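In these records, each integer encodes one residue's backbone shape. Here is one protein:

___
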Amino acid sequence: MNCEHYVARKDGKPYQKENFYHHPGSYKSIFSPYYKVADIMVNGIFYAAHAPLFFTMQEMAQPDFNIQVIADVSCDIAPDGSVPSTLKASTIADPVFGFDPSTGRETAPYQSGCIDMMTIDNLPNEMPRDASESFGGQFLKEILPELIRGRSRVISHATIAQDGHLTSYFGHLEDYVNAYAEKAGIVV
């Protein structure tokens, strides 16, 4: 699913990716058709401040909210994230907690009327050995030749920063970088 499937401009103009990246507050969620029919949601997006939530706490409490399990791989803790029920990071040892949409509070998991939340913030680092070996094999086969080749479209599209500046493919992160630098007292 791409951004244009779950957000729309508030002013009714057509969705534009760069505009959304630079002005997320000018957009509203149009995710409701999905939460009305889906049982499971896996969230793995980059969330920018002022971007619309997929859904609100009030929508989660409505009878037509059908999602029963949310795997929030992004794990941006509410209120600073796209999923308002991501109240905390869970752990590998205790991966699931419940969320009661009628109260907005954490519950024990697997309860009737509650949503099961898996919000392991370091989940991408928990890859098993065979996945690591598979990734390494693909890296050697697909990426290493691109690195050796020199000028490569694949590498240029994957390069986040070059010579101290974000590349054009990652310009949408500029506000985030500047806010982080300001918070950390770094002059950009």
Q: What stands out?
A: Residues 161 and 178 are 14 Å apart (CA to CA). The beta strands are 7-9, 27-29, 40-43, 69-72, 96-100, 105-107, 115-118, 161-162, 165-166. The mean pLDDT is 91.
